[in-house]
Amino acid sequence: MNRKTLVLPAVIGLLAPVLAACGGSDSGSDNGDAIVVGTTDRFTASKDAPAPLDPAYAYDVGTWNILRQTVQTLMIQPRGEGEPVPEAAERCGFTDTGNERYACTLRDGLKFANGDAVTAADVKYSIDRARSLKADSGVFALLSTIDTVETQGDREVIFHLKTADATFPYKLSTPVAGIVDPDDYPKNKLRDGFDLDGSGPYTLKAEVENNEMVKARFTRNPSYKGSLKVNNDDVEMVSFKDADAMGTALNKGDIDLMTRAMSPEQIRKLSGDTDTGIDLVEMPGLEIRYLGFNTDAPTVKSKAVRQAMAQVVNRSALVSKVYGSQAEPLYSLVPASVTGHSNSFFNKYGDPSVTKARSLLNQANVTTPVKLTLHYTTDHYGPATKQEFEVLRDQLNSSGLFDVSIKGTPWDTFRPAEKKGEYDVYGMGWFPDFPDADNFLAPFLDKDNTLGSPYDNSQIRDTLIPESRREADRLSAATSLTDIQDIVASDVPVLPLWQGKQYVAARDDITGTAYALNSSSTLQLWELGRGVSG
Predict the structure, then answer these.
(1) Is the dihedral of CA 247, 249, 253, 256 positive or negative?
(2) Which of the residues 206, 246, 279, 331 could staple to 38 if both were Cys, CB 3.0 to 4.6 A apart?
């Protein structure tokens, strides 16, 4: 039997399903074979990235989905809609009216998986370690508003912030704020390789070949104390070379569930099939795709070149040709369903126009055609990425204003090269750290941004971002957030393209699939169980 689960409307954080696969998330078995999850994410230790699973370094959706199962945070994003709730903490909250002092009390009797007690000192150590190491992934920037961390006894942690930050509870729910054991994680260096220890719902055993983790075995942590109900004892995550291989394994029964990243063709086929014994679950997502620019590079240093690209690119045609109903055109870094969104790029550029683009280049005395290479990663954002960049290339070249070529590179090479500024124009995706407009803006525009971008707008960094963070009511932050988006549309340090839905495909005896991902694409393995085939 086949069912398609729709989660509508696509409201931020709303994950209450219309239908769950054969049973519910509370009907998982406590015994039996491990649930096997397929992914095309690659987990590689290399010279440029020797510590892929260290919470002070990891900063992509794949590695975070490993960490979220194993390393506990003070706060966690809830199962459904709403603000973060306590996880390792018993309670947390601002203790002043200015959102500059945030205090947490740990749960009593909290332990690491090895039996060691988790104390307030461990929380302070973990947070201070990530801030001081300043890993080149840029993940430490999520903690940039912290001034000092104070402890009172074994269970009280107090964060003194440099400036007001209403988004701080969300940041404490991200893996960079994960609590680690000082005995396992040295203070002054990253922990290389694939060893991972924490106090989360699972322990991890990694199977590694040629410096790549090919399988991760998650086993229920008997010492875990937190807010989550764990519906299984064992989950295996297996990495596949591509979506086709992953799909074949699901059809054969070698895996029970697959998620990132299915191809558009697989999703379309699963949507139409009726007798496969596989359920497709569709849910709202906040994934976005965009082009990034090294604004110091000679080819795109002129704002007019970046504006002309924004004027030529036809998002609707791109989405229609490559992704169909699985994505929507995006005219801002902030997705349409997030409070504070503004269609700033459409407001400035309107419909695609070669005439307007040519005028922009002529006014800036830019010689055409502008020769560019668009770089993309071959193995991180799904099998349709190459086709997407072929469409972008053809759109730009057909204008006569650009001479564009494209080049694909594996993620473990692509990402370090991008951070070093080796690419003038490059394609990236973003899965939010937390579902707030701030997290679609600050990571790209603030100091120590995740792209390593040289773009620096003092009004955004010094005034607008701090203003927006002062507002606990995020609707009240809309003016500042809109101003940021308008500046981005004018300067084009990044060019947003589309936002996508997210999908899980699972054999129909797997329960809890409607909650397997939250709106931030967080994989929630604890929700999965094994029931009776429908």
Answers:
(1) negative
(2) 246
